[in-house]
Amino acid sequence: MPTTTIGGHEIHVNDEGFMTEYDEWTEDLGQALAAQIGVEMSDEHWQAIQFLRRDYPDQGETATLRRVSTVGGIPTKQLFVLFPKKPAKKMAYIAGLPKPRGCV
């Protein structure tokens, strides 16, 4: 797997730039990843990212928008406001998780 350095952290990534090692992620790294894609993190952003991080080990895959909305309690419309255009991909990228299999 290729590696890259982001925010002073050397991390393993796939061909699309998504992190491949769950345990390499930290909040500082998440902040740096968010800055790379132009997302300024707020408490609401972190709520979504923390849900993804908690959900991934149990489910074995990155949560879809529907799961973040129904289980995580963040309305889909709000996810599009927080992470414009491609919220599922952007959330997964910031959370250091694989790209979700489906968008919804």
UniProtKB/TrEMBL annotation:
Entry keyword annotation includes Translocase: no
GO annotation, biological process: tRNA wobble position uridine thiolation
GO molecular function, one term: sulfur carrier activity
Catalytic residue list: 103
GO CC terms in record: cytoplasm
Source organism, top-level taxon: Bacteria
Protein name: TusE/DsrC/DsvC family sulfur relay protein
Alphabetized Pfam families for the sequence: DsrC (PF04358)
Organism listed in the record: Nocardioides piscis
Protein family: Belongs to the DsrC/TusE family.
Membrane-crossing segments per the record: none
Location(s), subcellular: Cytoplasm
Annotated keywords: Cytoplasm
